[in-house]
Structure formats: C-alpha cells, structure tokens
UniProtKB/TrEMBL annotation, chains A, B, C:
Keyword Transferase: no
InterPro entries: RutC-like_sf (IPR035959), YjgF/YER057c/UK114 (IPR006175)
Official protein name in the record: RidA family protein
Organism taxonomic ancestry: Bacteria, Bacillati, Actinomycetota, Actinomycetes, Kitasatosporales
UniProt-listed Enzyme Commission number(s): 3.5.-.-
A molecular-function term among this protein's GO annotations: hydrolase activity
Pfam families in the record: Ribonuc_L-PSP
Amino acid sequence: MPTEKTALTPATHTVPPAKFSHGVKKGNILQVAGQVGFLPAVEGQAPTPAGPTLREQTLQTFANVKAILEEGGASWDDVMMMRVYLTDVDHFAEMNEIYNAYFEEQGLTQAPAARTTVYVGLPKGLLIEIDALAVLDN
Amino acid sequence: MPTEKTALTPATHTVPPAKFSHGVKKGNILQVAGQVGFLPAVEGQAPTPAGPTLREQTLQTFANVKAILEEGGASWDDVMMMRVYLTDVDHFAEMNEIYNAYFEEQGLTQAPAARTTVYVGLPKGLLIEIDALAVLDN
Amino acid sequence: MPTEKTALTPATHTVPPAKFSHGVKKGNILQVAGQVGFLPAVEGQAPTPAGPTLREQTLQTFANVKAILEEGGASWDDVMMMRVYLTDVDHFAEMNEIYNAYFEEQGLTQAPAARTTVYVGLPKGLLIEIDALAVLDN
C-alpha cells in the first residue's frame, strides 16, 4: 500500500534552506532532523541561538523538537530515541539536570525515550544538537 | 490503535539516573540506548567499566546491549543497525576483530546488522559506546 | 508473523569484511550502513576513495547509498533520515551545495529526508560518511 512521506515544517521554523526536512512522517514513523537552539525564525534574519549558555540552547532545542513532533500529531510520549550531541564532555552533568527537569515538567505518561549522548564538533556558537525518532500509535 | 511504549530495564542495569530508558519497545520497534562497558550494577556503587582495554569494554558493551534486547524479547537477529562510537581511529581494526569473533560465536541465523562507526569524544576512561535499533517480527 | 531480515549487497560493493551488512531490510524498514566515498569494489584491490575532494567523495557516497536502497527495492523517496558525518565544520556550506544539487537532479516526488550533520573523526583520507533509514510502502 503506497504511503506518503510528508514534511513537517512548524510555523516556528524556516522552510529548510537545503533539500532536507525538519521532520518527516510516513505511516507511524516520525523522524525529527537534528535541531539546535535557534529561536523561532524571523523572516529576513539569520538563525539566532536562544543564547550562549547550555541551558538556553538546550531548552530551545527541546522546544524545536517538540514543535516538529506536534506538527506530526505526536508528543514526547511517542519518542523512542533521542540523540544528544554535545561539544564538551564537561557539559554532561548540566545537560542531564536540564533534561530531567524538562521531562519532569512535560508529564510523560509512558517510559522516557532511550538516549545516546556523544561529543562531536558543531558549528561555532552551538553547544547542543538533538534529533529524535518517534513511533506513533498505529 | 494505541500501543504502549515500555521501558526495558534488565536486572544487570541500574534504574536510569536520568529521564531516559536503557531501552524501549513499542509495537515491533525496539531501541537500545547508548551502552558502554559498565559491569552489572552494584547497589551503592558508581558504575565501573569492565576494564581499561578496548576488548574488555567492547565485550561488556555487547553484553549490555544483549541484556536489553532480551528484556524486550528480541535477539541479535532482530537488530537492524548498530552505531559504534569509538574514541580513536587506531582502534578500528581491533574493534572489528572483536566484533567479528563475538558475532561468530553468537550464531546469527539472519543477515548481520548494518553498522556505522564514527570517532567521537566519550567520558574519560570509556573507549566505546554502542546503540542499536531492532525490528521484531510482527 | 516471522519476518526475515535480509542483507542488501549491491554488485558495486564487496561482501562486507566484517560481520555487518551494507544494508538490511526487514518488513518495510530498510537501514543503510554508514557509506563512504569508495569507488565500486574491484576484486583483489583495497577500497579506494573516488578522490581527495569533498565533492568527489560526497557524490560517490550518495551513489553507494543509492545502490543499497535500490538493492532493497527502495528509492530516495523512501528515505526518512540521513546522517551526514563530516570531519570539518568548514565543509558544511559546500556539502549543502552538493547535497541540494544532487537531490534536485534525483527528482524527489515526496518530502526530502530529515537530516542530522555532525563533525566527527573518520579514517584518514575520508571526508564524509552517510547512513540512511528508509521506510518502504507497506
């Protein structure tokens, strides 16, 4: 049975500058592209991080992931896997604190997602990037 | 049809210290979080790597991934993708040797999983991290 | 219902040197292993990159991913997620240009895949690695 793959482009996001989608959904699988801590897009302005700190960028990144999930009719409860890319091993404890507090607030009703955290290079000024794989109810 | 996402927490693992799961299963999709070479959890003790060598850590990491698969009723034969994170390009050949010998012993009956290996930063003392995506029979 | 997981080994690829598959397919999920810019395999010769430049390696990497998709009866339109691993942040703009032009030419009929780009270490001489997750029509 043919199933359409659709792009998820929340109002807070620019139309992607390259031939990729911020998120896609096909059948019950939803994939969120790597999100960073950019503030909601403003036409004619370059993307701007929410701030220089890990906290500001992490919370904005979560908001960006969530906007894409919601655009696809999903919620944090549908997320199976989060990949967290940090630039500095010394940020791990603080990221975990922010992560825990955030998901505490979100009121998950199912098991939290699995997660992998690794330390990579990111464009200058960015401290965190997150992508997510979700499986929706059939 | 609503489908519950459940956490997979083998007896060898601690309850996760943060709002993530060691593994989750929803429908026929099973995702294993990034595993490292920590020995089975001992209450009241900090997580301890199986040893300082790549061999010790790789074999323990495999054991940790496998425990989560089994907790979800899956086996290595269900694994579609393994992501292997190493800290040192010079470890690739040795990791491959250990990898091949291990999966030889496991007696796979289906095609081995796809794999990506990249070189990243990991917390001090850790040489390898692996996560896995499995698709179970319907 | 048991579902076989099958290996995808295009004619352009060697039989994998380790216990992994270039790609696997099970049910409607297809996973492509990390591909790099190696030219089609020639028996008795070591794998050789298409060239030293980002452009040569990126285009060859795309060809290698595509060969595996096609071996599994899939196309770029089925790809949900591409993970792009670069070694140098300064390569991002050029990679995007190559990426856009390539997918323009491929004539996608559905939303382009989501994507994450991070900067990691790769074996000497390699500038890019890409893996892909596809969901086929049911």
